[in-house]
Design brief:
With 382 residues, this protein is an all-alpha fold. It has 20 helices and two strands. It has a two-stranded antiparallel sheet. It starts with 7 loop residues before the first helix and ends with a helix.
Length: 382
């Protein structure tokens, strides 16, 4: 074979891809391989001094090339494609489809770091650290920078139970809950970069309450943080907040299995969060669903999940969500929800209905149709 000529194995891969309407050249395959995105073909040794040979095209090479071709687009940075590929590889395999192989985890880590270093949250933390020791002038500069770096934060979803009750009663659906604005987030950033003492308990109470964690309001947080500040309660380890806020360093230090585990947690929480939200859209309720919602409520985590989880995330949102899900708290929440799910997995089975998901879907469609008809009737009366 002439130097630089495509290998027979790569030509075979090209033919297999073409049969699946995926157009990739042999030179493209080689460029992906040089970039560390495509595994080499498995070879078999022929004996001492006789070299090696490729007996058959490795299916992993083919499926990896298919995944890359699916996510790479003209002008798109390959690191974004790697993150989309990594997310897809963690999804359940649908019947009749082939399992998507894992991308090289070294490339995944590199892509995560690249995306996180360009995120507004990381740049704000770096800015805050640079402003440390500058007093009020530093704080003023930080909040001014936040206005430029942080777009208005989306509001949280209105409580699905309230949305459902309004729809069933024919009333106006509640508007989105008030979510944390940029100033609330910057309070935390300032505490991380400049020190909690520079921000104060009241501002931090406002920041923590804005994210809705554990169901605590501003007064609850102010009382606990104020007591800690006065030495009347358990001290707060603000260094822990600073260490865990540096998502870039967390990802750099993470072992391969920790990245995969964080993906499992993120995708699992996305599914449980989706079930919770769909309750507000008149999805038929079942005891299994109600038990899962109760678990989330017991943890006081729905508001925070609503700010962290994106059902159809961009690569940037996926990267930030994955970094968050490396925290033990979210792994524990995921395990608790999985425990409940395994106790009662009949999410889509109506009590007394043996048709399972079929009967569930019919019930949902019937409910939606009736709601639409009732809405039309109310509109006609007006």
């Amino acid at each position: 074979m002439a130097r630089g000529a495509p290998s027979p194995a790569d030509l075979q891969v090209v033919r297999e891809l073409a049969a699946r309407q995926v157009v990739v050249t042999a030179s493209r395959l080689e460029s992906w391989r040089r970039a560390g995105l495509l595994p080499p073909h498995r070879r078999r040794g022929l004996g001492r001094g006789r070299g090696s040979v490729v007996d058959a095209v490795d299916p992993v090479v083919v499926e990896s090339a298919v995944a890359l071709a699916r996510h790479l687009r003209q002008g798109r940075d390959g690191r974004l494609a790697v993150l989309d590929w990594f997310a897809e590889a963690g999804m359940p395999v649908r019947r009749g489809t082939v399992e998507v192989p894992e991308p090289p985890l070294g490339a995944v880590r590199e892509a995560l770091v690249w995306v996180l270093e360009r995120s507004a949250s990381h740049r704000l933390v770096e800015f805050a650290r640079g402003a440390a020791g500058a007093g009020e002038e530093g704080q003023d500069a930080l909040y001014a920078a936040a206005e430029q770096l942080v777009a208005p934060y989306r509001g949280g979803a209105a409580n699905p139970a309230l949305v459902r009750a309004a729809l069933e009663a024919g009333e106006d659906v509640p508007v989105e809950a008030e979510g944390p604005d940029s100033r609330s987030m910057v309070h935390l950033v300032a505490a991380i970069g400049m020190g909690a003492q520079e921000v104060g308990a009241d501002a931090l109470a406002e920041a923590f309450a804005a994210f809705g964690m554990f169901g605590l309001d501003v007064e609850d947080w102010a009382r606990m943080l104020g007591a800690a500040e006065r030495g009347e309660g358990p001290p707060v380890d603000w260094g822990l907040l600073e260490r865990h806020a540096d998502a870039v360093s967390v990802v750099k230090r993470a072992r391969d299995e920790e990245l995969v585990r964080a993906r499992t947690v993120l995708l699992g929480l996305r599914w449980f969060y989706g079930l919770y939200v769909m309750h507000g859209l008149l999805m038929p309720d079942t005891p299994a669903q109600a038990a899962l919602r109760q678990r989330i409520d017991e943890w006081g985590m729905f508001p925070f999940l609503d700010h962290v989880i994106a059902v159809s995330p961009s690569p940037g949102q996926f990267a930030e969500g994955l970094a968050v899900c490396m925290e033990p708290l979210f792994g524990s929440l995921y395990e608790s929800l999985m425990e409940q799910f395994l106790e009662d997995p009949d999410i889509f089975r109506m009590p007394g209905d043996d048709t399972g998901a079929v009967g569930f879907s019919k019930e949902w469609l019937r409910t939606l149709r009736e709601q639409a008809e009732a809405g039309n009737a109310r509109g006609g009366e007006e």
